Amino acid sequence: RLEEIDIEAADGSLRPAFVRPGWAEDPALTREPPKRLRVLSPFDPALRDRKRAARLFGFDYRIEVFVPEAQRKYGYYVFPLLQGDRLVGRVDMKAHRDADELRITALWPERGIRWGKGRQAAFEAEVHRLLPLAGVSQVCFADDWLRDPV
Fold first, then answer.
1. Residue 53, CA distances (Å) to 1, 48, 80 in order
2. Which of 9-18, 27-36, 112-121 shows the lowest per-residue confidence on average (mean pLDDT)?
3. 90 closest CA partner among 40, 51, 54
4. What pLDDT score was predicted for residue 22?
5. Which pTM does this prediction carry?
6. Contact between 123 and 90 (Cβ < 8 Å)
């Protein structure tokens, strides 16, 4: 059996959804989401359904690997950034193992997101956490890496 509830979308409208009975008593739902900034895979379950991500988070996202370079809005393979329960930006970065570095080419905060010292520190901590996964030992930021929201 399932119960029908309303979920608030990014635009403030209510949309029907179905949950299992007793969902409100689940301790995982009463905890605040972690504040840590995380780099998400473009294939993360929260983003896999692009229309759902736009509806729930107001996050319009597509992977541009098959988009001709001149027509790309962000970059070849851009990663979404999650902090708490909000998608706060997207980053174009790539591991260059021959140079032993993770190159941050560009980062676009989402509209309405302030990219201050605290968020920058959280981003740098996350990037350094990813270095072993990327197979490199250092981070390199391009000169004009922090961009205006698109």
1. 26, 8, 11
2. 27-36
3. 40
4. 86
5. 0.86
6. no
